[in-house]
Design goal:
The chain folds into two domains: 43 residues; 155 residues, no CATH class. 59% of the residues lie in helices and 3% in strands. The chain has 14 helices and two strands; from the N terminus they run H-H-H-H-H-H-H-H-H-H-H-E-E-H-H-H. Helix 8 crosses helix 13, helix 9 crosses helix 13 and helix 10 packs across helix 14.
């Protein structure tokens, strides 16, 4: 993800600054003499990078009894291999390398608006997909809203329906984020019902974008571990944009649900 890429960049910059003399000397002397693999093996394992300052000399004194036993015990401990260092946490890496706050700013931007990190051609896909899938997304929204309203007995409560519709296009309601600083499940806070669908781009057999519900037993893209990060950002952005376009359209979605509830109740 962007967070890890930026940390890697900072770590590289820090390493290059700390060992600039060793790096420049190595590049000047060995670039034309050795292959990259040989340079890697020789330089990255060299004493210049891994050496530690020698301990101060100790004065030798005659030791008896408990002192000699402590010396033997200390030597035994020193002979044991040192414990493996634990991998640093993300917070520790940020404190070390994010000296100017630029990484934190980019992480915040990615969390709130991941579309800003997409390339121009990917943004074009988002714009086209969100236009072509509005009707499909509207049908899904209607099913999701109607099911939730029935389960919570909100069909005859217009105000509650309005609140329900207002949260249809997000995974974590803004009120929950403000109250508990809860982070959305996915960057951009797309609706979680989108996990049950796949967004399919146009192909030779399909001239427009399509929205397909997952088959029984099919693993959501978000949990499959096989989807490219940008592909998920595009999917979430298309669904979110289409959903928000429906909610903010000329027709009042909540009022429509309320009216339909009355029609169904009279039957």
């Amino acid at each position: 993800s962007l967070q890890h890429v930026m940390l890697l960049k900072k770590a590289c910059e820090s390493f290059a600054e700390e060992f600039q003399h060793e790096l420049s000397g190595m590049m000047y002397k060995e670039t034309y003499l050795k292959s990259s693999t040989e340079i890697d093996a020789a330089f990255c394992s060299s004493a210049a990078l891994r050496s530690t300052p020698p301990p101060p000399p100790k004065t030798r004194t005659r030791e008896h009894g408990a002192s000699a036993a402590r010396r033997v015990s200390r030597k035994a401990r020193e002979a044991q291999p040192p414990p493996a260092a634990a991998d640093p946490s993300m917070d520790e890496l940020l404190r070390k390398y994010d000296t100017d706050g630029s990484i934190s700013s980019l992480i915040e931007m990615e969390r709130d608006n991941p579309e800003a990190m997409l390339e121009a051609d990917e943004l074009e896909q988002v714009e086209r997909g969100s236009r072509e899938l509005q009707c499909d997304v509207c049908r899904v929204m209607s099913k999701v809203a109607l099911k939730a309203a029935k389960e919570r007995r909100l069909l005859r409560d217009e105000e509650a329906l309005s609140e329900l519709v207002g949260n249809l296009c997000v995974g974590t309601p803004e009120s929950a984020i403000a109250a508990s600083s809860e982070y959305p499940k996915y960057p951009g806070n797309p609706p979680l019902w989108g996990e049950l669908y796949r967004v399919l781009p146009p192909s030779s057999k399909r001239p427009r974008w399509a929205l397909r519900r997952l088959r029984k037993g099919e693993v959501p893209q978000e949990r499959s571990g096989k989807s490219d990060y940008n592909a998920l950002v595009i999917k979430h952005a298309i669904i979110s944009r289409s959903c928000k376009a429906v909610v903010s359209g000329e027709s009042d979605f909540a009022e429509l649900l309320f009216q339909l509830a009355g029609v169904y109740a009279d039957r």
